Amino acid sequence: MPGVTDRVVVVTGAGGGLGREYAMLLAREGALVVVNDLGGARDGSGAGSTMADSVVAEIREAGGTAVANYDSVATEEGAAALIKTAIDEFGAVHGVVNNAGILRDGAFHKMSTDNWESVQRVHLWGGYHVTRAAWPHFREQRHGRVVVATSTSGLYGNFGQANYGAAKLGLVGLVNTLAVEGAKYNILANAVAPLAATRMTEDIAPPEFLEKLPPAQVAPVIGYLVSDECTDTATVLVVGGGSVKRVAQFESAGVYFSEPPTIDGVAEKWSEITDLTGATLGKNPLG
Ligand code: NAI
């Protein structure tokens, strides 16, 4: 059976919300799942084993295979211990879903360095640490699947989420390079910006909007991205409420200046520079 059967997948932050749904679906489809969760509050304070344990219990009751891990993805040691759990319990790691996250919202003029840093630590550094710890295994077995949770707040911006948006778009930057470096080892790296009703969004959007966004609508796309069937890499998707869409960066035809223009020269051509008519998918001219 292809798909995710017998694939060992680590889902971070899987003790609730979207991560729980991802872990349950993967286990239902035959994956061996490491359910990681630090078990703290939405702002990252506190810790505990109850959240991860209860999801593992649910998976086992449904006949699936899972093991709990309570390490923080925000540290190198925590991520190393997490990947070690996969190796010790199941003998391999085939995929990581970097889903763990916290929120410390606040307008930028009130942003504290602590709120900036703790959000970067969990989302961006967490994605780095966990993927970095799994990477040698992926290369060695010539198979790996990386999924990161990005956000429309990073892709498009959102009031009060400068720290979060920066971390979330940082993860897209990470995925773009992992896709390049992983290509010859059959390592794929993709990003999903979910839209779902969880504790993270419960007071951000109105209830009538949230009730149309069950986390179960997002999980199958994560399942596909970690499956053997998937061949796509460096793809960014926005997924929620039944819709699955691709987001990409485009470059305008732009303007060519044979000599450095004056500022006025740039101003004169500005509408032509920024006109996206006939824009093409962007790619790195240095890559
Ligand atoms: P959630 O708060 O239910 O899930 C996040 C989980 O991560 C929690 O269970 C939490 O305990 C865990 N966690 C936090 N810090 C951790 C750490 N250091 N180590 C291990 N686990 C840790 O929220 P939700 O909505 O399920 O979020 C999942 C991911 O999706 C997050 O990365 C979030 O930023 C992202 N996302 C969610 C959106 C939504 O509409 N719900 C929108 C855009 C992005």
UniProtKB/TrEMBL annotation:
<dbReference type="InterPro" id="IPR036291">
    <property type="entry name" value="NAD(P)-bd_dom_sf"/>
</dbReference>
<keyword id="KW-0560">Oxidoreductase</keyword>
<dbReference type="InterPro" id="IPR002347">
    <property type="entry name" value="SDR_fam"/>
</dbReference>
<protein>
    <submittedName>
        <fullName>SDR family NAD(P)-dependent oxidoreductase</fullName>
    </submittedName>
</protein>
<dbReference type="InterPro" id="IPR051687">
    <property type="entry name" value="Peroxisomal_Beta-Oxidation"/>
</dbReference>
<feature type="domain" description="Ketoreductase">
    <location>
        <begin position="7"/>
        <end position="203"/>
    </location>
</feature>
<dbReference type="Pfam" id="PF00106">
    <property type="entry name" value="adh_short"/>
</dbReference>
<dbReference type="InterPro" id="IPR057326">
    <property type="entry name" value="KR_dom"/>
</dbReference>
<dbReference type="InterPro" id="IPR020904">
    <property type="entry name" value="Sc_DH/Rdtase_CS"/>
</dbReference>
<comment type="similarity">
    <text>Belongs to the short-chain dehydrogenases/reductases (SDR) family.</text>
</comment>
<dbReference type="GO" id="GO:0016491">
    <property type="term" value="F:oxidoreductase activity"/>
</dbReference>
